[in-house]
């Protein structure tokens, strides 16, 4: 199978071909044995109108703040009637940030803040789905996350590690309508790393057993030269390769110096950020890191100190670490959340507010110390540069060098693109 | 291990309750609602189902000779029966006593066509398709492959070593047919059918905010035990009315709380193969459906309210004004508030962004039925459909949808069951049957639909016919390449076991066939909080008191449960073993769906968000689990039945043979014995060999 047909299999246009589609995806997922490593991105770039920022991100770290981050108490502080428990401080890069983010304020000359996000979905699960996939949730189709899109177009990003990983939450169908192989590998606890990756028996015994598996299976495999059987043969080879891989230590946080570990803070989110950096360093393309408990209807002040503080520390440490290791040049860091929170502060907390919220991008050719778009004095309406979740996805896809205008037909014969046909916001790129 | 008595319970249940069943739930509903005026009058008593006649009878002829035997079919004057010993006899109808003659004729009317005749007809259609294309069928299937395939397809797991060898050493004639009959009546049949339905219907335990669907799940299982015909089963889902605390079948409509359009979209694709998902938002570019068509269908559900009040807020408020804790309040309130209600008028309107000339945004929509061709409207399904009474709209919709002459209802379920047994639908995808000429063999699909109607939507009987075809009993093909033309079924397609089949097979290895006996029984947890009348604070507090006074015995301890994990007391008096935190009960008797990190999910069990999303794809985390995971440890661990069985054997040869029977349902070849001996000779143990067998492709795939 040649590259062209893998990227846009002609058979996708025919309803009978789900099998072919899935198989093509499985091979993409499993590109190590089928595709020359990283070659596809250059092949893809040909014939695609390149522009500012296109393909600048070799890696994406997607930080998800679950529950809905209050924009007013973080990246879009207000001094009027909607002011929260804390005020604003002047941060590096000439922007104002909430006092809740002292660490971020030190490194904000490396980030671009988007204050003009707007959406219609104000329910947690649905908004979480939207921010993760760029599509509104439907009962009839599952949309892929950006990591799956990237792997669909670009193939695998490393020889022996998965191309997408999600940390602190399950993969929640991240492959969407693509083959399950494109689903991010879930790491539920950054401290324990990859599950079942070591064998109690040891690799030599394992190899002996696998040798016998081949013997026992010989007749069966000869009788059924089946693509799915072969896929399993390849998965076994890849898994053994992974188990033997020196890259496996990418999942092991104990390998980090104590000082580095400390800088990220002693939280699950901070640890997740550190793991993300390690994975990116080892070639993983797409890493999601989740932070929970942002649904601050009550007790906002305390919880911003706690949850917001963990985020602040982890995020700032990540940016500094990526800068120090030189990875920030080709790693796009995104801070995304479900929605904003209501301008009306009742003294304790704020309700859901999808009409206006903030997001942050950094690294990989993104402008530094930049504020894009604005809300009004209360933080209630977007008054400049409105950006949809689709725009955000298209922008990330653009940075990752994906053909965002290309239509992929799902197995149910419906057309989809990265970012739901939205335009990337090129103004964000330097 | 004790032999759990409910291994035989389904059979007894089935015979005792047949014909009585539909009253359950509705009866109580009626009592509760009688004082109220309005919609409750709309609930019609379901049509009575004919009592099923027993196939077994002592047949007598005019000369007084008697033969106790099972009815198999009637062809003209020839009555075919089968005696207990498995022998078939052909009796002359005219020589029987009058009562038996009448009985046989009645049975003929009620029962499907004789098995072999029906199977032969399907075989002819398959062969015709192959011959036309100049293709040949695959060679017939050997007994070893047959026993494994048929156990997996009909009992949902591999046979145990004892079961496999019992079949293989059976020298009597007709043993395949007998095995099929036994499996269809066994507990494994219901279990695997539940898994199959759960994927199709997106069955899940937890609808959020304290709402648990245990009663719905129990209802589905009961229907399977009773082998309730598909048309009646679906009709009940469509017309259900009541609460999740008293009427399980409302679980289907409540699955998409307050999203009737999504629910309908799933209903039409699942039960009719109508490709309408696009028409929900815009006219379909390829399929014949317009947005208006979709809304016309939606109007049948326009007088139905599934937007029940979430219990969390109310529980919070009541916790402040009563002395009942929030957890108990939520447990009582949630299922009682989760309700399908019929309201007085149709509320369906065209959406705000409606952009076609045949209507304006906000226009009221009248109920109207879709048709695939103009001739469709002349058939029986479309006759006498009344749309004037809002309260009766769902009944009318269900009447149309489940009518034997509905242009797609029988076809959709036939195609799905064919796919279940043959690995691919005659038409793919099974969710798009709008253009039936796209089927790989349209005549076969028509023949299957015809068979479905003739067996009166009896899914068990339908599968009995299919499994008895030569087409099914042929060797498997590798996954067909769609670019080489349609797949015409020279044999079933080689499949990887489903997640549930894999898990249940693991259990057969570890626990043996006793695993079929563990039953999840959680419905009482919901049923016992049912408030008979209105949901008032007084009623809730009274119920809470009733619960705390301990009348509920050991269930009391479960009040604090989250409801998302099964606990041992959920299994009545026969709890399954628990090893390393794994509950060793079959997939159908565990949380629905399992947690993401569970073996079942890693192997592709659907998350039940999207219909039909069980997957048989592999992946690195899955293989890591196969090689190093907990399940692997359980199989090669001390309490593993398969290891105990092998350890009992005295020679390495016999031990190896025992493993082959257990894992692969066959004897090892001479060469394979040699390989295994080589392994055991090289310092590896029996547990290593168990590891090896478990990690073979032959184990994971169904030939």
Short synopsis of the structure:
The complex is a heterodimer of chains A (430) and B (703). Chain A contains 13 helices and 16 strands.
Strand content of chain A: 5-15%
CATH level-four homologous superfamily name of the largest domain in chain A: Alkaline Phosphatase, subunit A
Residue share in helix of chain A? 25-40%
Record field, number of beta strands of chain A: 16
State the shape of chain B: globular
What is the number of E strands of chain B?
A: 13
What is the number of domains of chain B? 4
Task: Estimate the mean pLDDT confidence of chain A.
Answer: 86
- Which runs of chain B of at least 5 residues are low in confidence (pLDDT < 50)? 1-46, 552-564
Biggest sheet features of chain B: 4 strands, antiparallel
CATH architecture of the largest domain in chain A: 3-Layer(aba) Sandwich
Count of runs of 4 or more consecutive helical residues of chain A: 13
Please count the helical segments of chain B.
Answer: 30
Residue stretches of chain A low in confidence (pLDDT < 50, at least 5 long) are: 1-48
**Distance from first to last alpha carbon of chain B:** 32 Å
Q: State the secondary-structure class of chain A.
A: alpha/beta
As a percent range, the share of helical residues of chain B equals 40-55%
Class based on secondary structure composition and strand pairing of chain B: alpha+beta
**Strands of the largest sheet of chain B, in order across it?**
1-2-3-4
Strand content of chain B: 5-15%
């Amino acid at each position: 199978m040649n590259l062209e047909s893998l990227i846009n299999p002609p058979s996708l246009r025919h309803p009978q071909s789900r099998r072919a589609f899935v198989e093509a995806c499985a091979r993409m997922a499993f590109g190590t044995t089928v595709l020359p490593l990283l070659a596809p991105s250059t092949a893809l770039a040909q014939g695609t109108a390149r522009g500012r920022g296109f393909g600048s991100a070799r890696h994406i770290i997607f930080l998800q703040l679950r529950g809905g981050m209050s924009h007013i108490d973080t990246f879009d502080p207000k001094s009027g009637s909607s002011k929260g428990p804390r005020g604003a401080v002047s941060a590096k890069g000439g922007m104002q940030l909430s006092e809740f983010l002292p660490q971020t304020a030190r490194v904000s000359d490396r980030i671009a803040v988007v204050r003009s996000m707007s959406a219609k979905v104000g329910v947690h699960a649905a908004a979480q789905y939207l921010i993760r996939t760029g599509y509104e949730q439907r009962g009839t189709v599952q949309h892929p996350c950006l990591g799956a899109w990237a792997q669909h177009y670009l193939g695998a990003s490393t020889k022996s590690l998965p191309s997408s990983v999600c940390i602190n939450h399950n993969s929640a169908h991240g492959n969407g309508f693509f083959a399950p192989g494109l689903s991010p590998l879930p790491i539920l606890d950054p401290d324990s790393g990859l599950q079942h990756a070591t064998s109690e028996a040891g690799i030599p015994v394992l190899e002996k057993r696998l040798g016998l598996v081949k013997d026992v299976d010989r007749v069966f495999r000869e009788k059924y030269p089946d693509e799915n059987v072969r896929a399993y043969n390849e998965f076994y080879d890849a898994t053994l390769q992974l188990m033997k891989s020196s890259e496996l230590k990418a999942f092991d946080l104990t390998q980090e110096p104590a000082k580095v570990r400390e800088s990220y803070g002693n939280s699950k989110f901070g640890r997740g950020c550190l793991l993300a950096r390690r994975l990116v360093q080892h070639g993983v393309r797409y890493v999601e890191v989740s932070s929970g408990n942002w649904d601050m209807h009550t007790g906002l002040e305390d919880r911003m100190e706690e949850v917001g503080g963990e985020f602040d520390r982890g995020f700032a440490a990540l940016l500094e670490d990526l800068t120090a290791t030189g990875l920030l040049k080709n790693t796009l860091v995104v801070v995304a959340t479900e929605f904003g929170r209501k301008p009306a502060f009742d003294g304790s907390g704020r309700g859901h507010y999808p009409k206006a919220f903030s997001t942050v991008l950094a690294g990989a050719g993104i402008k530094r110390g930049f504020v894009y778009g604005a809300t009004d004095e209360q933080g209630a309406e977007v008054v400049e540069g409105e950006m949809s979740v689709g725009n955000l996805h298209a922008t990330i896809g653009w940075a990752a060098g994906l053909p965002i205008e290309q239509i992929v037909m799902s197995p149910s014969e419906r057309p989809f693109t990265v970012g739901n046909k939205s335009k990337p916001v090129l103004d964000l790129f330097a | 291990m004790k032999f759990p008595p409910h291994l035989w319970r389904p059979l007894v249940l089935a015979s005792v309750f047949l014909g009585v069943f539909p009253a359950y739930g509705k009866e109580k509903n009626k009592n509760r609602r009688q004082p109220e005026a309005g919609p409750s009058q709309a609930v019609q008593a379901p049509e009575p189902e004919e009592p099923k006649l027993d196939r077994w009878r002592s047949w007598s002829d005019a000369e007084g000779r008697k033969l106790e035997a099972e009815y198999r079919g009637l062809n003209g004057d020839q009555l075919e029966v089968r005696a207990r010993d498995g022998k078939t006899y052909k009796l002359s109808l005219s020589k029987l006593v009058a009562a038996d003659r009448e009985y046989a004729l009645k049975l003929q009317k009620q029962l499907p066509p004789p098995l072999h005749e029906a199977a032969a007809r399907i075989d002819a259609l398959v062969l015709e398709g192959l011959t036309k294309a100049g293709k040949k069928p695959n060679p017939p299937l050997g007994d070893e492959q047959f026993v494994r395939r048929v156990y997996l397809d009909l009992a949902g797991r591999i046979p145990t070593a004892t079961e496999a060898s019992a079949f293989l050493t059976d020298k009597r004639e007709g043993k395949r047919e007998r095995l099929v009959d036994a499996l269809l009546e066994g507990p494994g049949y219901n279990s695997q059918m539940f898994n199959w339905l759960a994927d199709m219907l997106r069955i899940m335990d937890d609808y959020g905010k304290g709402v648990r669907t245990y009663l719905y799940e129990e209802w589905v299982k009961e229907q399977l035990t009773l082998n309730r015909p598909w048309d009646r089963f679906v009709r009940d889902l469509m017309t259900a009315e009541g609460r999740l605390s008293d009427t399980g079948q409302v679980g289907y409509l409540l699955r998409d709380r307050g999203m009737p359009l999504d629910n309908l979209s799933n209903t039409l694709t699942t039960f009719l193969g109508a490709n309408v998902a696009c028409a929900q938002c815009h006219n379909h570019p390829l399929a014949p459906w317009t947005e208006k068509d979709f809304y016309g269908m939606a109007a049948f559900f326009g007088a139905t309210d599934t937007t029940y009040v979430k219990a969390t807020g109310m529980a919070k408020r009541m916790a402040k004004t009563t002395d009942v804790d929030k957890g108990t309040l939520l447990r009582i309130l949630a299922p009682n508030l989760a309700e399908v209600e019929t309201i007085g008028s149709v509320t369906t309107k065209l959406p705000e962004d409606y952009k076609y000339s045949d209507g304006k945004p906000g226009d009221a929509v009248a109920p109207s039925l879709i048709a695939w061709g103009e001739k469709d409207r002349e058939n029986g399904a479309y006759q006498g459909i009344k749309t004037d009474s809002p309260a009766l709209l769902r009944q009318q919709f269900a009447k149309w949808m489940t009518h034997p002459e509905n242009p797609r209802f029988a076809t959709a379920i036939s195609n799905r069951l064919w796919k279940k047994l043959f690995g691919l639908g005659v038409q793919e995808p099974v969710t798009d049957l709008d253009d039936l000429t796209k089927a790989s063999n349209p005549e076969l699909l028509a023949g299957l639909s015809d068979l479905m109607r003739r067996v009166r939507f009896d899914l068990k009987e339908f599968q009995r016919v299919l499994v008895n075809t030569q087409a099914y009993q042929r060797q498997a093909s590798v996954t067909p390449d769609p670019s080489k033309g349609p797949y015409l079924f020279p044999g079933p397609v080689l499949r990887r076991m489903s997640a549930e089949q894999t898990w249940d097979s693991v259990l057969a290895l570890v626990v043996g066939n006793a695993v079929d006996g563990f039953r999840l029984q959680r419905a009482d947890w919901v049923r016992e909080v049912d408030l008979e009348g209105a949901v008032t604070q007084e009623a809730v507090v009274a119920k809470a008191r009733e619960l705390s006074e301990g009348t509920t015995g050991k269930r009391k301890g479960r009040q604090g449960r989250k409801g998302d994990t099964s606990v041992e007391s959920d299994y009545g008096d026969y709890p399954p073993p628990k090893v390393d935190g794994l509950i060793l009960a079959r997939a159908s008797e565990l949380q629905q769906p399992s947690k993401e990190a569970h073996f079942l999910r890693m192997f592709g069990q659907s998350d039940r968000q999207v219909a039909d999303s069980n997957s048989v794809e592999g992946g690195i985390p899955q293989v890591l689990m196969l090689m190093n995971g907990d399940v692997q440890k359980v199989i090669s661990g001390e309490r593993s039945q398969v290891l105990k069985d092998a350890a009992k054997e005295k020679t390495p040869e016999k031990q190896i043979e025992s493993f082959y029977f257990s894992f692969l349902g066959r004897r090892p070849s001479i060469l394979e014995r040699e390989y295994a001996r080589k392994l055991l000779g090289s310092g590896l143990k029996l547990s290593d060999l168990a590891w090896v067998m478990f990690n073979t492709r032959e184990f994971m795939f169904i030939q």
